C-alpha cells in the first residue's frame, strides 16, 4: 500500500485514503472505543489496523488535530480531545465565551432536561442521580472541593441523560468541561443561606416521583441559586 493517495484512490467509494482513515478514527471516537482523554494507538498500530501507509495516518491525524477532535502532545502521543465534530466546534467557541454566557446556556439545558427526566427516567437513571447527589453531599460535608465539583457535575449530567433526548445530551456533553468550570468558580460562594439551596434535593425527589411540574420548579429554584452565587462572587471581586 502506498504512503500517499493517487487519483485512483480519489475515485474509490468513500473518498481518498486520508478521508477514509479520518472516517475510521471518527467512528472509533463516536462509538466510545476511544473516549475523550484517551491516548489513541501509536502510529504503527494505526497503519496495521487501517491498512494504509504512515503518511496517510499522519495526514488524517493532523487533520483531526486541526479540527480539535484530537490533540497531539509532544513526546507523549495523540489524545482524544472531543467526542464529535459538534463537541470540537463548541470547545473552540467556548474558549472565547464569558462565564455569564456559558451559565445561561448551561442552565437553559438543565431546565429543559428536568421535566423530561421526570417523565422519561428509568430506574438506572434514578440510581445514578441519587448516587451522585449522595456523593455530592458527602464531599461537601468533608470539605473536599474537587470531589464536590465532580459529583455535582455528575448529578446534572445524569439528569440530562435521563431526559431521553439524545441531542440535548450530546449538546450538554459538548460543554461539560465548561460546566465543570462554572461549578468550580461558584463553589466558594455556594452556601446553605442562598435562596433555593435545597434545589438539588428537591429536583431529585421530583424526578423520583415522576413529577415534571415539581422538577421544573426545582430547576428554576436552582437557577435562582446560581444567580445569587454569581452576585456574591461579583461582590467579592469588587471588595
Would you spell out the secondary-structure blueprint of this structure?
Blueprint: H1 7-11, H2 17-30, H3 43-50, H4 54-67, E1 70-73, E2 77-80, H5 85-94, H6 99-120, H7 123-141, H8 145-161, H9 166-174, H10 176-186, H11 199-208, H12 212-238
Antiparallel strand pairs: 1-2
Helix pairs in contact: 2-4, 3-4, 5-9, 6-8, 6-11, 6-12, 7-8, 7-11, 8-10, 11-12
CA radius of gyration? 22 Å
Strand tally is: 2
Strand order of the largest sheet: 1-2
Give the ordered list of helices and strands. HHHHEEHHHHHHHH
The geometry reads as elongated
Mean pLDDT: 85
Overview of this protein structure:
The protein is mainly alpha-helical. It contains twelve helices and two strands. Strands 1-2 form a two-stranded antiparallel sheet. A hairpin with a 3-residue loop joins strand 1 (70-73) and strand 2 (77-80). Helix 7 runs antiparallel to helix 8 (145-161). The termini are far apart.
Amino acid at each position: 500500500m502506498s504512503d500517499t493517495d493517487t487519483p485512483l484512490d480519489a475515485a474509490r467509494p468513500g473518498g481518498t485514503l486520508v478521508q477514509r482513515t479520518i472516517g475510521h478514527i471518527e467512528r472509533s471516537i463516536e462509538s466510545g472505543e476511544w473516549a475523550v482523554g484517551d491516548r489513541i494507538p501509536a502510529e504503527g498500530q494505526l497503519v496495521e489496523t487501517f491498512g494504509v501507509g504512515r503518511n496517510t495516518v499522519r495526514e488524517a491525524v493532523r487533520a483531526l488535530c486541526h479540527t480539535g477532535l484530537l490533540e497531539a502532545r509532544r513526546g507523549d502521543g495523540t489524545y482524544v480531545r472531543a467526542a464529535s465534530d459538534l463537541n470540537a466546534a463548541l470547545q473552540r467557541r467556548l474558549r472565547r465565551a464569558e462565564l455569564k454566557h456559558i451559565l445561561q446556556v448551561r442552565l437553559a439545558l438543565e431546565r429543559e432536561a428536568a421535566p423530561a427526566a421526570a417523565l422519561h427516567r428509568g430506574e438506572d437513571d434514578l440510581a445514578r442521580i441519587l448516587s451522585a447527589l449522595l456523593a455530592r453531599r458527602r464531599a461537601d460535608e468533608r470539605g473536599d472541593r474537587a470531589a464536590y465539583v465532580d459529583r455535582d457535575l455528575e448529578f446534572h449530567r445524569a439528569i440530562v441523560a435521563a431526559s431521553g433526548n439524545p441531542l440535548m445530551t450530546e449538546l450538554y456533553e459538548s460543554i461539560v468541561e465548561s460546566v465543570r468550570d462554572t461549578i468550580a468558580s461558584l463553589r466558594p460562594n455556594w452556601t446553605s443561606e442562598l435562596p433555593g439551596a435545597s434545589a438539588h434535593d428537591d429536583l431529585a425527589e421530583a424526578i423520583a416521583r415522576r413529577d415534571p411540574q415539581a422538577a421544573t420548579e426545582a430547576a428554576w429554584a436552582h437557577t435562582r441559586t446560581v444567580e445569587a452565587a454569581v452576585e456574591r462572587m461579583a461582590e467579592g471581586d469588587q471588595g
